[in-house]
């Protein structure tokens, strides 16, 4: 039986991880779970899985959860705050930690888990975007595996199995193109939050879905791929593939291209990461080649979807620039979701931030945290959140 901690258990990836656990309850044991405000979902998780520890980072949600279980007998210890979040990530009984929390908040619990010697099933791409070098060094120091959960990186990971990484020419990172594929910048001026959240292929959380609509999600994945697979940015090619059947590809120097294909369902990369190198019975529907449409491939439109271009540039620059990129994106997406700015304003705010901060080297995690705060404060003062 494999003991699992889930950091961000009530979001999209966390919920699907619970489905994978549920599919073979004798194979997995849920040890620790965390969430922010979703105490009602946490109630159901505690009732069903009886984890050792459950953490909420929102104080009111924590109080509500404690109140619900006040007169009930449970073995789960309910805790509050960031320190408890790190405690859940580094739980002594966990074999693997699924880091599915969204945003830069996932950096510290991931590092805490690594330092506790836990393998990481990484779904929090921001961790590698802002702290890739530090995370990789820590993983090497503590001898832990970082197993990608993103469908694209999980696909690349599989396409590399059994091959010499020195023989890789390019990583081909596929993107659905989101709900606005083919639109011009002018056509995107007045799109609504509801339209932006209407992803054609995937069911994801709101922040990631907006990132998909701007192609920033693909930009963050480019930076993530750079760190996961030690590939130069010039050898990581983003390709729009609207059907989301091919989840990514690896091109080798002899001209061979190996792809990983499946229906668009996150339970597959989650299951593969949890059980690597073992393959288990399918938790997804089989791919029916006779019912899928023809497969299309397009170049991304970097003139309209500038966020992808900014991500390549920030990744190449290194230092704190990916942190600036990520902080500005998190801030701008939050404003858009609250209907305080237009869709196109997202890339304008990111461009502003990238041109308002001088680059510098990252000395440690504190450098990242401090620069993130500076970017957010700059944007708050300028855009009056």
Automatic annotation (TrEMBL):
Binding site for Mn(2+): 150, 152, 221
Binding site for NADPH: 10-13, 37, 124, 126, 205
Domain 1-deoxy-D-xylulose 5-phosphate reductoisomerase C-terminal: 146-229
Keyword Manganese: yes
Group of enzyme by EC: oxidoreductase
EC number: 1.1.1.267
Source organism superkingdom: Bacteria
Keyword NADP: yes
Record-linked SUPFAM superfamilies: 1-deoxy-D-xylulose-5-phosphate reductoisomerase, C-terminal domain, Glyceraldehyde-3-phosphate dehydrogenase-like, C-terminal domain, NAD(P)-binding Rossmann-fold domains
Substrates-to-products reaction catalysed: 2-C-methyl-D-erythritol 4-phosphate + NADP(+) = 1-deoxy-D-xylulose 5-phosphate + NADPH + H(+)
Cofactor annotation: Mg(2+); Mn(2+)
An example Gene Ontology molecular-function term: 1-deoxy-D-xylulose-5-phosphate reductoisomerase activity
Pathway involvement of the protein, from the record: Isoprenoid biosynthesis; isopentenyl diphosphate biosynthesis via DXP pathway; isopentenyl diphosphate from 1-deoxy-D-xylulose 5-phosphate: step 1/6
Role: Catalyzes the NADPH-dependent rearrangement and reduction of 1-deoxy-D-xylulose-5-phosphate (DXP) to 2-C-methyl-D-erythritol 4-phosphate (MEP).
Sequence similarity: Belongs to the DXR family.
Protein name: 1-deoxy-D-xylulose 5-phosphate reductoisomerase
Source organism (scientific name): Clostridium neuense
């Amino acid at each position: 039986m494999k003991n699992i901690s889930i950091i961000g258990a009530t979001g999209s990836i966390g919920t699907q991880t619970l489905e994978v656990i549920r599919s073979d309850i004798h194979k997995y044991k849920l040890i620790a779970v965390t969430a922010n405000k979703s105490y009602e979902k946490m109630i159901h998780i505690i009732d069903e899985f009886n984890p050792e520890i459950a953490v909420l980072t929102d104080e009111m949600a924590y109080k509500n959860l404690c109140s619900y279980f006040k007169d009930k007998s449970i073995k789960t210890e309910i805790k509050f705050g960031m320190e408890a979040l790190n405690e859940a990530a580094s739980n002594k009984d966990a074999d693997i930690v699924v880091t599915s929390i969204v945003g830069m908040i996932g950096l510290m619990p991931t590092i805490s888990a690594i330092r506790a010697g836990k393998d990481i099933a990484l779904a929090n791409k921001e961790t590698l975007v802002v702290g890739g070098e530090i995370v990789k060094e820590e993983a090497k120091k503590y001898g832990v595996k970082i197993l990608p959960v993103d469908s694209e990186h999980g696909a690349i990971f599989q396409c590399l199995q059994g091959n010499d990484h020195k023989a890789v020419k390019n990583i081909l990172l596929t993107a659905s193109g989101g709900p606005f594929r083919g639109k011009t910048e002018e056509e995107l001026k007045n799109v609504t939050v509801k339209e932006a959240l209407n992803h054609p292929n995937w069911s994801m959380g709101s922040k990631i879905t907006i990132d998909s609509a701007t192609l920033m999600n693909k930009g963050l994945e480019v930076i993530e791929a750079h760190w996961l697979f030690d590939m130069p940015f010039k050898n990581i090619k983003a390709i729009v593939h609207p059907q989301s059947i091919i989840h990514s590809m690896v091109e080798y120097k002899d001209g061979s291209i190996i792809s990983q294909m499946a229906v668009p369902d996150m339970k597959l990369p989650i299951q593969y990461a949890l059980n690597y190198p073992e393959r288990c019975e399918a938790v997804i529907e089989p791919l029916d080649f006779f019912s899928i449409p023809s497969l299309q491939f397009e170049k991304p439109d970097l003139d309209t979807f500038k966020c992808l271009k900014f991500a390549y540039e920030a990744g190449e620059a290194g230092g704190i620039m990916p942190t600036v990129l990520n902080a500005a994106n998190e801030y701008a997406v939050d404003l858009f979701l609250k209907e305080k700015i237009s869709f196109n304003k997202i890339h304008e705010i990111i461009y502003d931030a990238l041109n308002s901060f001088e680059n510098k080297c990252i000395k440690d995690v504190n450098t990242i945290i401090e620069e993130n705060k500076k970017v957010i404060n700059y944007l708050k003062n300028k855009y009056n959140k």
